[in-house]
Amino acid sequence: MSVPTPVAVPVDAPPVPPPPAPVASSSSSSWPLGGLYNRFAAWRKALDLPNPGTVENLSKESKQTLLNNYAFDGARADLSKSLSMNPMFQVTHSFHLGSQASPPSYHFGAMFANDKLFMHGNVDNDGNLSARFNQGWSTNNVSKVQAQLSSTPGQSFVQLEHDYQGSDYSLNAKAVNPSPADLSGIYMGSYIQSITKNLAVGVETILQQQAPGLSDIGAAYLAKYTSSDKSWIATAQVQGPGILQASYWQKLSEKVDVAADLQVMAAPGRRDALATLAARYELRMASFRAQLDSTGKVSAYLEQRFAPTFAFLVSGEIDHFKNAAKVGVGVMIDSSSLTPEEMGMVPPPGAPAVPMPQP
After folding, report:
1. Low-confidence spans in the chain with pLDDT less than 50
2. Which of 305, 292, 238 is nearest to 261 (CA)?
3. Which residue intervals of 23-135 are DSSP H helices?
4. Which residues contact 216 (CB under 8 A, 6 or more apart)?
5. pTM to 2 decimals?
6. Bridge pairing between strands 286-293 and 297-307
7. Which of 73, 155, 180, 335 has the lowest tally of Cβ within 10 angstroms?
């Protein structure tokens, strides 16, 4: 049996170099407060708080139920024509006459929209021009421009705005008639943050810079509470001095929702309040709204659709304290030069038929 010959190791062999030392990372963990920030970010993410929406849409649900943005008097006709669906391009002719509050008017509008861009322009019979432009840079970044050119002194303006919506907060910055020369204009900023899954609070600041050295600043404080099943929403907004606005909206069923709005002004030398109650009932081809406020006004609004492209409108208001009444009727007609396939009303030839759901 043979014995293996041992291998001779040179005495003067160089030692094996140690592994290189790790290079210090420039990430946030090397920052003295980086660890604390990372733990706070992880804790915040674990809460899974919802986005509270923007300050502008704080009471969006109640405004959709109230008649303030729907009621009209006189005769009204809105004629629109869709020229393209993707991207969307539409033109509109609007006529309004016989109103007790405004003279007869005609408006021509055009709208263009795609996934990231929205443009809308409007011109009336007096030559007043208004335009809106929205550019979406990402799903949570939107820049907005709104402008109006009017022959009436003091009615022309330009407004620059930017919205950013995070996972559980929203930021908004707005400037109205900003002047780069002397920095005059109106500047607004708002921030709203969800602190629980149901409650969100925020603040809005307004700076009016009329001239160099002449400015005024104000602040408003906001709160919004949403039920867990999103069946009711309550909001409140407090401004100084002594101005309170609160709203409540509740969905009673799939077709019925109600809303209440309260505005209180307790400023020095003036005390005033207005309470409003409203209800909305959605039918298959119609929508009915009714409203009652503390000044004795009873209002109603009906939108009846006889076809997807034709709707008949009726609006009425009775002021019991002033013994006055207003009535309005209107039509909305939407015509299109597109084929039914382009509008998505019927499937294109050769497409598989979709079975109807069974009861």
Report:
1. 1-3, 5-13, 21-29, 345-359
2. 292
3. 34-47, 60-65
4. 207, 208, 210
5. 0.79
6. antiparallel
7. 180
